[in-house]
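Quick start: what a row looks like.
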Amino acid sequence: MVIKSKRNFPNLPYFYSLIDWKLPTLSRRKSATLKAQTIDDLARAAKKRVPKVVFDYVEGSALDEIGYSRSQRAIRSVQFNTRILRDVSYVDPSEIIFGKKVDLPIVFGPTGYTRLMHHVGEPAVASAASHNNLIYSLSTMGTVSPLELAEAVPDCRRWFQLYVMKNREDSAAIIKQARDSGFEALILTVDTPVGGIRLRDLRNGLTVPPRIRISTVFAIARKPIWWLNLFTTKKLEFAAFRGWTKSLLELAGTIYSPAISFDDINWLQSAWDGPIIVKGVQSVADAKMLADMGVQGIVLSSHGSRQLDRGVPPIEILQDVVKAVGQKMDVFIDGSFMSGQDVYAAIALGAKAVFIGRAYLYGVMADGERGVEKVIELMRRDFINTMALTGNRNLAEVRQTGAILGTK
């Protein structure tokens, strides 16, 4: 006997309930953002939006680019410990940083030349950070000044990243501007005594603003919207070095100080009365020295492998550093974090929060502020999902449950 379905008259209300028709967006840029499910999806969209020289600047690192791929492998080698039968109907991914809550354990790290990636630039990123109760860090090599950013996005929690320049008076002047503009913490970058050798930028002849060469004509034809935005908005230049038109390597040689030392930390503590974070720490020994000096935080960082190629991936020393100094200062980390699971790996190994850079630059290149919002959305989705699947309801439990670094 063959069993057959029982037939009914069509149920039109049920049929209508299944229809999910939406008007298509006429913007391919917006459509790509809405469809993105990973940061890699946004990176592919970004590559279609900006000239090769710009995309290479974001994606590239130093020399053979070995260090960046090693960092990615190290992060992805982390295995998560899991607890079961715990009520995870509500999980809280927030963290307290310098006395104030942020909604996710991520910080928008300092990146230079952001208006090169999108014509709104740093304010677009800071605005997305502000809307999501996150912290934005402005670089000395930014294309807006501390004052301009404060006026554009007054409600954003702002940190300022500093290079100790050869001319100490230049450093003091920009520190004063950051203080007067309401920046709450200072990030001293210490892994740039000299500029890294970035072969992509050298081959592409990258300058800010971009020079018009014969090859530029073809680039304009391929990316007309990017060039139109460049030509119809304010002049693209370094806010701290207005008028500079030489290569980025030449600029680095002018501002980076090969004479930087621990004495500069003492000078900075006398010039800045807020929290000081030292970025670019790559050893337990240096972390201990900075803790003894009373620094409030450090960032384990290899500068995204954009300075020294073949350095130690920061996540490989994270647990040792947290064990050595975690009771004295906040330990942050950056480098190659491209998903909420990547961020979870660092938190589970003891980090206070993770600085992201390339991830949000892919978002801003793909679709401006909306692209950055998408980056936050994807990272939040994956981070909260991972918390629930590992049985953790807050970040204290994440750190207690811990993780296993696969490379050890």
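That is the whole record. The domain at 28-401 is CATH 3.20.20.70 (TIM Barrel). The chain has a mean pLDDT of 89.
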